[in-house]
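Before the break, one more example. Copy the sequence into your notebook; we will annotate it together after we see the structure.
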Amino acid sequence: MSKKPSSVRAAPGCEQPFICPLSKLRVGAACRIKQLSASPEIAHRLREMGFCEDQKIKLLSQQTNLICQVCNVRLGLSVELADAILVEPLRNEELVA
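Here is what the structure looks like once it is written out:
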């Protein structure tokens, strides 16, 4: 049984179905981090800052840099770093507190 690509809808807040870079999320969207695709040193630092796999975050602002709510703290990221964070948008019942 095969799925038709045209029948797959993009998850809310994301241009691609299911998983996309944090930089592609819409402002105000909540998501769950699925993977850090940066160098080991950068991935380690992101985890120290709270950007861990399965962590729920919310994108607050997206201008020159991105501002995210992580563990009830606002953190800024460059677009390059946000490109290395792959996320899955959350459904309404899973939103960040």
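DSSP finds two helices and six strands in the chain. Residues 1-8 have pLDDT under 50 and may be disordered. Try to locate both features in your own notes.
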